[in-house]
Amino acid sequence: MRKFLLRNIVPVLCAALLFGAAMYSLYVTPPMMPQLDAAIGSRSTVTGVVVKDPDLREKTLQVTLRVESVNGKPIDTQTRILLFADRFSGVAFGDRIIASGVMRVPEPFETDSGRTFNYPKYLLAHGVTHTMSFPTIAIEERGRGNPVIASLIAVKHTLIRGIERALPEPESALLAGLLLGEKQSLGEKITDAFRNAGVVHIIVLSGYNVALIIDWVSLLLLYALPRGWAYAATALFVVSFAIMTGASETTIRATIMGLLMMVATVLRRPKAALRGLLIAAAAMALYSPYIVLYDLSFQLSVLATLGLILFSDKLAERMKFIPETFKFREIVATTLATQAVVLPLLIFSIGTVSLVFLPANILILPAVPVAMFVGFITSLVALGSSTVAMPLVALSYGVLRYIIEIAVWFGSLPFSVIPIPFGIMGEVLLVIFAVYGLGLLWWLYKKKALI
Questions:
Q1: pTM > 0.85: yes or no
Q2: How far apart are CA 448 and CA 11, in angstroms?
Q3: Buried b (16+ CB within 10 A) or exposed e, 38-75
Q4: Is 227 exposed, middle or buried (0-12, 13-18, 19+ CB in 10 A)?
Q5: Cα(242)–Cα(178) distance, integer angstroms
Q6: Which contiguous run of DSSP H or E holds residue 157?
Q7: What does the pLDDT look like over 64-115, one tens digit per residue?
Q8: Which residues are within 8 A (CB) of 111 and not within 5 positions of it... i.e. 6 or more apart?
Q9: Within 270-356, where are the H helices?
């Protein structure tokens, strides 16, 4: 055991850091915000700067505000509140605003499947301690944000304008989701269909989408630049892309792993994918400990990648009967590998299991790279001339419509998902999940997978 620990000092330290972050989030008292707490339940006026690109939803605009003062009194500590504002309030990143509304403390709530969602800890993982619904907003000043981030966000909105100019809804919303993680305009019905079909990961900028972008950019730059410069430029692009798209947990994890893999390539070292995953997860946990236990997207992203690393190649080797045409064998292997690892978490946290995830992924995933590449070119051309873009628009529309129709058809089947009630089943699932995790760790140890 001692030799194993010495040989795997980095993975062991990363695992210890993740465990420590989990314990911290369980037992450490959340930070006190006396000035905000004093305003709870009463109408208050806060002044602050918008520190993230506002998130446009179907009914609201979610604005993350770094508070500077409450009711005219400056705040010394760095704190954020989440405003559920009117969709047409016109607020943008970097705006200094005055918001007047009733201050609230977020509370846990029960989901449709009977699970309790710890909303306060989820928001705390993103630095948010209080909320305010539909406040009156006045914009005092614009351009107070980081100019680099503001420029990247401007690029994103330019691409979105090109997408919306070229394609109608919901195809434009799907393309924005594939390229930029912007899925809000898809609507609840289509998003639920994607979720029921087990393919919602393609519209939330998953590691799969990020990996495609990294591959394309590095391949293009390797033709134009020396090897070292090409990877350096790719790294800069990937970091910029992560910031531009909102730096979600999935995107950050995929970005860190991509950067680690590029460093390994430049140094001509073996690609230790599992080490890279642990380092990425530990770095994110160090920055925000609460995500380990209270951010489902982080958990699913890490577990799905773990399954991909450990099992996809082995499954592919045992599936020689599946043709490699259109990468069918790879898609089946990767889908089964990721589902095998994330399934206990999905059952425990969400309470539903998709029965059609395999055929839906087999039919949809081959079309995703085509939709992303052609759609990106289409949006760029459409910014210059809608007429010139017409042939590309037709092709993009066809591929995107195909993805939507397949997802909606599978997701609308009466047997597409199985609900799993909580109650006593929750306790049983906790035991199963613990045994499953311990078994996986033992498998890693016996196979020396961390070395």
A1: no
A2: 12
A3: ebeeeebbbbbbbbbbbeeeeebbebbbbbeebeeeeb
A4: exposed
A5: 14
A6: helix 147-166
A7: 999 999 988 888 777 899 999 998 888 999 999 999 999 999 998 887 767 7
A8: 117, 350, 351
A9: 273-287, 291-294, 296-317, 328-349
